[in-house]
Design goal:
With about 220 residues, the protein is α+β, with helices and mostly antiparallel strands. The chain has ten helices and ten strands. Strand 1 and strand 2 form a beta hairpin.
Length: about 220
């Protein structure tokens, strides 16, 4: 049987989670060696015929994700850390009024999108949690949903709380610690300047000063 006949015979057949809809070429006039398929989950993709026949391609990618979720849950992802732990913690602080953190989340009206009631959907949207990172809402007053969440370091998340104060100078918005780092100052220096009544622009934009040297030179700005 010729290759084209083999391709034609595959149309309408199901390979794992994929059902072949039609054959197509990816360039004008090229051989129709690619197959347009629909996955059981509803998504579509185009793949080479031999990958279906050999079993290398079994789904749009959802099968791999389902196996990951199943394996992770089976081996106790909640104890091992990772996305599952973050997902459970998110649900707890938004829905369990018996935990202390509920007052800052569920009690403030922070909700979880319906899609994320299913852990597999949460994992599909966010991916596995990178080492050392936690789940953060970009808008601290917004809800838990794909467009408002990301994995962030604890330092990044600490800056994104209702208690963090930001200062805007020349269109740049940073917290005090980040302004200090940007200007080559220490946080303590900036804090003390503000405590001493300096205006915010003067406190941030004034260069740090070096102490007097052994020859008795006065304090001077360090450029």
């Amino acid at each position: 049987m010729s290759k084209q006949n083999v391709i034609g015979s595959m149309i309408g057949k199901k390979y794992a989670r994929l059902t072949v809809i039609s054959a197509q070429s990816l360039s004008n006039g090229g051989a129709k060696r690619h197959l347009f398929c629909r996955c059981d989950c509803g998504k579509t993709l185009t793949t080479l015929a031999y990958r279906l026949r050999s079993g290398n391609t079994k789904s749009c990618g959802c099968l791999k994700l389902d196996l990951l979720v199943r394996r992770s849950t089976r081996h106790g992802m909640a104890q091992a850390g990772g996305a599952y732990t973050s997902w459970e913690a998110m649900r707890t602080r938004c829905t369990n009024d018996k935990v202390q953190s509920f007052k800052n989340y569920g009690n403030r009206g922070i909700t979880i999108c319906g899609r994320w009631n299913d852990f597999s959907c949460f994992l599909a949207d966010m991916g596995e949690r990178p080492p050392g990172m936690t789940l953060e809402r970009i808008d601290n007053n917004g809800n838990y949903e794909p467009s408002n969440c990301r994995w962030a370091t604890r330092a990044e998340q600490a800056r994104n709380t209702t208690r963090t104060r930001f200062y805007v100078i020349d269109g740049v918005r940073l917290c005090l610690a980040d302004w200090a780092r940007r200007q080559g100052l220490t946080y303590l220096c900036l804090f003390q300047r503000l405590q001493n009544g300096w205006g915010i622009r003067k406190a941030i934009m004034t260069p740090r000063m070096s102490p007097p040297n052994a020859r008795g030179n006065k304090w001077k700005h360090v450029r």
